[in-house]
Amino acid sequence: MRRVFDTKELYNGDYAANAPDLVVGYGEGYRASWQTALGGAPRETIVDNLKKWSGDHLIDPELVPGIFLSNRKFADPKAGNRGYALIDIAPTILSVF
Question: Which of 11, 48, 79, 85 has the fewest Cβ atoms within 10 Å of its own Cβ atom?
């Protein structure tokens, strides 16, 4: 584990009470097991990963700098300064279509 986040710092809104108490940010090359993601509790503490990782939401976000690329201008000239959140991406994309 690289960091543990208090979800009060991560989530807000009507459903924040449904979030876990803590969120683990794993270091590069580590993650929770596939079974754990589905609510399971495997006996082994550490196992080899035999599946291809094609994407993951468990790594510490400081290790994964993100960027959103678009070939269209934002209609809102303040878009870069307003502090949009991840939840704003889907409605923004839908508004283009």
Answer: 48
